[in-house]
């Protein structure tokens, strides 16, 4: 059974940091394109960062250098390090997998982890 389980969210003060984790099972994370997405109240879903099977990484312009996506193939886990958090980062964060590795169609999703940033 394919499963993605996010963790690491929480309530933090502005300027703080969080590391989100996404534990994958039922497939090999390293041969897929993995992505982090977020959904904030009143806004559409935003693709925050992706890493493909060749370790090519892309970020949304809105997050620039504050976000770092990485993965540990041995542990089959995806990470998102977020620094210098602002209230605008408050959202539900989801990890997702595109098994084709092309980062075009994400077909498996986790349940999300909530990040709330207080000013």
Tell me what you see in this structure.
The protein has 119 residues and is mainly β. It contains no helices and 11 strands. The chain has strands at residues 3-7, 10-13, 18-25, 33-39, 46-51, 57-59, 67-72, 77-82, 91-98, 108-109, 113-118. The strands form 2 sheets. Strands 2, 4, 5, 6, 9, 10 and 11 form a 7-stranded mixed sheet that branches. Strands 1-3-8-7 form a 4-stranded antiparallel sheet, with no helix packed on it. β4 and β5 (46-51) form a beta hairpin. The termini are far apart. 29% of the residues are buried.
Compose a concise summary of this entry.
By secondary structure, the protein is an all-beta fold. 0% of the residues lie in helices and 51% in strands.
Query: Rounded to an integer, what's the Rg over CA atoms?
Result: 13 Å
Helix content: under 10%
- Would you tell me the structural class of the helices and strands? mainly beta
Q: Segments where pLDDT lies below 50 for 5+ residues? A: none
Kindly report how far apart the N and C termini lie: 40 Å
What is the H/E order?
EEEEEEEEEEE
Average pLDDT: 94
Q: Total number of helical segments?
A: 0
Largest sheet geometry: 7 strands, mixed
Beta-strand percentage? over 45%
The overall strand count is 11
The coarse overall form would be globular
